[in-house]
Structures are given as C-alpha cells and as structure tokens.
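Comment thread on ticket #2218

A.B. wrote:
> Attaching the input chain for the structure job we discussed in standup.
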Amino acid sequence: MKKLARLTALLLTGALLLVLTACGAETEQQAKQRLLDEINSYRASIHLDQLEEVKQLSDAEQVWAEQFRAANTTVLLSSETGATYKKWESMTADWVCFDDFGWGWDEREDGEQIDFLSAKVPANTPEGKAELLKELRDSGTFDDKCKSIGIAVVTIDGQMYWTCDVFRN
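C.D. wrote:
> Ran it. Output below, let me know if you need it in another format.
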C-alpha cells in the first residue's frame, strides 16, 4: 500500500510539474520571437520591409547580453566589457550597422564609462504591446530601410531585457 501511495504521489508531482511548465512564463526564445514579430508588424504599418533575423548577428547580440547575465546586473564598467565588445565587432565586421536599441553607454560622475541594458521586455498583454509600440516609434531605430537584425533576450534578476542592432545589408 505504501508503494502505491508513493507511486501515486510521484505521478501526481510529475503531472503537476508538466502542467506548470506548459503554463509557465514566456521563455527568452519566445520573447525574442514576439519582439521580432512586433518590430516587423510596426515596420509593415509604416510601409517598410520586414527585418530578417540573421543568426550570426543574433549570436553577436547574445555574446553581448551574456556578459550582463554572467554578472547578474544591467550595468557594467566599460573597462569590463571591452573584450566582449571587440568580439561583437569581429562578429559583425562584414555588416553595416545602422543603429542599436536596448543597450548603451554613459559616463558616471567619477568619469568612469559604463555600459548598460535599458530595454525591458514588456509583458505579453495589450498594455505591454502598446508600451512596446511606443518604444519602437519613439526610438527611430526601426524606421529606416535596414534589412537585417540581430536580437537577443537575457534574464537578469528575474526581469527579461532585450537588445538588438539593425543593419543596412
């Protein structure tokens, strides 16, 4: 009887985990695809061609994003990101970059330069979609006749952030 009870408990636990996984939060890959779909929907609304995601460019964005994930922060000293930025540059060397979105750099009061992620992945709700549309429109990044995009999503401290670059070729 104890074996049957244990087996039943184990099966119920497995079923519960399966249900929770199926109904769980959006994955980084799902968020990335949703963002790309929204970007292209916005571009269609202003009569521009869709951006093509290029794996090599997205891999370069992911290299950049992974450094922030590893440090579990959205702000890093530029002195810490130099090697990663050079790797990003080497991965995108044959491409003509037009603009970036979701990451930037600044100078602190003490003169130290920092790199940061700024674009949070909005909720997959009507409100989140409206927020994203406003960001896309206001940025000016997606209004050009670029053809290609590299895009990455990274989770830091439970919040998803995204970064991308758009390219003319």
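A.B. wrote:
> Thanks. Noting for the ticket: The chain has five helices and seven strands.
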